[in-house]
Amino acid sequence: MKFNYRHLKTILKSTLLLSALGFAIASCDDDDDFWDAFIPETDKEPTTTQVEGYVFRPALVPADAANVNQLKVASGFKVAKFAEGLGKPRILAVSSTGFVYASDRDAGIVMLLTDTNKDGVADDKKTVANIKQAHGLTIYKNKMYIAAVNEVYVADMNANGTLGMPKLLIDDLPDGGQHPNRTIAFGPDGKMYLTVGSTCNACPEPNGENATILIANEDGSGRKVFAKGLRNTIGFGWHPETGEMWGMDHGIDWLGDDEQKEEVNQLKMGADYGWPYIYGEGKYNPADRPQGDTTYQQYLQKTTLPSLTYQAHSAPMQMAFYNGAMFPAEYKNDAFVAMRGSWNRSNPVGYKIVRMHFENGKPVRFDDFVTGFLVNSNKAHFARLVGVATHTDGSLLFSDDTNGVIYRVSK
Fold it and tell me: Which helix (H) or strand (E) is 288 found in, with range?
């Protein structure tokens, strides 16, 4: 009698699924994955999985005219340099009077850029603050708030766009580790929100403020954890119509080319978004098991899963809801996100600006908005994108911290 291997495999698979072995099987997209990965609920059974990991960093080439001219932008738009020779511009903020600010974490400065003749090109640049590892920027009640690794400062804004002497509000944020880039904003409730990334790729954090978003009063007092289980949420904001808070979280590295996808999360007080144990649409991280007697399934039950996901390793950075008047009406209240680009993937992804469509206040899909920063058959790049902001004239600004350029998209 001949054994039918495929039939036997089916029987065994069904038996395993129906038995009380007490373990879950994660990342099972096809039959082969089923036989390759076993992630039990507890450590009474062995965990086994195999992941292929890659490091590929495209070479850096200049942002010269030839490269910039071949950029692709959505139909009806054009893209050009707003400013260059800026060092390493990161997060952007724009005042109600049209002053453009950019942080440079490595230089420890905040820059002011002005376009005095309104031709879409900055004609003046000056340093307006010197703060070690300055990164996050936001403007609230005509004051500039600046977040560094451990500190938050506030400075008065003068009529000419310069800043007064920064005043220290917070000096004891957790140490940075792998993700030191804090971002900051004020919500519709008048509260200060601060992102604090994880110190590692995936691990239990000894400091409960790491891998979180914090909330505090306007003066920095009363700080507490707003949401946790967030590996590194750089970009976040509030939908202009619903007031709901949304953010994009960075996925875990070293899970393979297509894992962990970047997450779009609706951010709510007290929610746990799963990191480092649960990721994506409820998958188990084989390298990190919930502590104590908690099983993966129990942790999953208290995890808030993403509303939408995006290509793994794209590295979402600053995010801005569009509130300008230059773009067509259908762009209103959608969000733009800077995708910095991959390094932990065999073929590079990201290196672009994307549009996140919202329908009835909820994110539904992504479209490419500006692409072409990968060149030479994807072997090289001339920008890794970080900051995104809407200018008062309705154009979209975004920053690159590799060639020191801020770009402008206009109609």
Answer: none
Contact between residue 22 and residue 45 where contact means Cβ atoms under 8 Å apart: yes
Return d(Cα 18, Cα 278) in angstroms, integer.
Answer: 23
Instruction: Name residue 364's amino acid.
Output: V
> Which pLDDT band holds residue 16 (cuts at 50, 70, 90)?
very low
Task: Say yes or no to pLDDT of 395 above 90.
Answer: yes
DSSP letter (8 states) at residue 14 = H
SS3 235: strand
What pLDDT, on a 0 to 100 scale, did the predictor assign at position 206? Answer: 94
Q: What is the DSSP string of 174-209?
A: PP-TT----EEEE-TTS-EEEEE--SSSS---SSTT
Report the chain's mean pLDDT, rounded to a whole number.
92
Region 272-289: what's the mean pLDDT? 96
Residue 45: the pLDDT is 86
Residue 88 identity: K
Q: How far apart are CA 107 and CA 87, in angstroms?
A: 8
Dump the DSSP string for 109-128.
EEEEEE-TT-SSS--EEEEE
Angle made by CA atoms 120, 122, 124, in degrees to the nearest 5: 155
Tell me how far apart the alpha carbons of residues 144 and 12 are, in angstroms, rounded to a whole number.
Answer: 63
Q: Residue type at 385? A: L
As a whole number of angstroms, the distance between CA 122 and CA 101 comes to 11
pLDDT of the residue at 181: 97
Distance CA 375, CA 365 (A): 26
- What is the spatial distance between Cα 236 and Cα 214, in angstroms, rounded to a whole number? 13
Query: What values do phi and psi take at 7, rounded to 5?
Result: -65, -45
pLDDT, position 15: 35
- Domains defined for the chain, CATH in brackets: 51-410 (2.120.10.30)
Dihedral angle sign, alpha carbons of residues 288, 290, 291, 293: negative
Structure tokens at 79: 């893209």
Within 8 A by CB and 6+ apart from 11, the residues are none
Q: Evaluate whether 251 touches 260 at the Cβ level (below 8 Å).
A: yes
Residue 306 tokens, joined: 């993403």
What is the C-alpha to C-alpha distance for residues 237 and 187, in angstroms, rounded to an integer? 8
- At 38, the pLDDT band (50, 70, 90 cuts) reads confident
| Amino acid symbol at 66 | A
Helices and strands in the chain, H and E counts: 4, 32
Neighbours of 354 (CB within 10 A): 25
